[in-house]
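User: quick one - fold this with zinc ion bound?
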Amino acid sequence: MSIHLRFLGTGGSFGIPIVGCDCVACQSSDPMDNRLRSSVLLSWDDRVVLVDAGPDLRAQALREGVRRLDEVWLTHSHADHTNGIDDLRVFCHEGKEPRPLIVRGNPSTLTDAMARFSYAFRSEVDPSGVSHPLLVPIEIDGPFHTLGRQIVPIPVLHGKLPCSGFRIGNLAYLTDVSTIPESSYALLEGLDTLVLSALREEPHPTHLSFDESIAVARRIGARRTWFTHFAHRITHAGMLERFPDGIRPAWDGLRLEIPE
Ligand SMILES: [Zn+2]
Ligand SMILES: [Zn+2]
Ligand SMILES: [Zn+2]
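Assistant: Sure. Structure tokens for the protein plus zinc ion:
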């Protein structure tokens, strides 16, 4: 049973192009340089999980023909990963019947998301008839079993913010990372495919830079590594030259199959 991953978005918090920017990436005519805010779709059998619900969710779901979600997993609560929560509404019905949707996240992620989208986490239909998402929060506090799979959350730090990566089989998805604790490296052994954020050339207080991401990827040693969550100022073609063998920049719409 293979796991499939689709990149819904591979851009940083502004997306690419950035409104009003004249840099080489933002002015590029290469479709690879159009990057919506980062999120991925994971699927196995007929199960579909969305990792992060960013502000581009509606456009991403239309582009990729997403019709149904079984669960949503949030890495952290920053706006570029959660501001599409209202657009989950369309996935909370089956025909005309309400179908509450599970949203998993670590404690700080859920606390923030529920404060900002309190109406969306009421799992009962509003008696006044106002339509809203029907989300059921489930806190991540260690490995969990769902939809026929064992899932291993990977605790990482995004500056000081605790952020969740996810390992499913031989695939790990880690975004918005600045530090990987030693105990989390132990959870990342024997990977076939690693997806890791790599923001930009210059250092950043809450994100790994290119060189830092390359060092982390080498230490983890997956068979293949895809970088994601890019800032602007470098094109896809530029990144192909910049990154070493075994590490490739992902792009919006890229599909991976991870064999088991
Ligand atoms: Zn982000
Ligand atoms: Zn730019
Ligand atoms: Zn973030």
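One thing worth noting: The chain has a mean pLDDT of 96.
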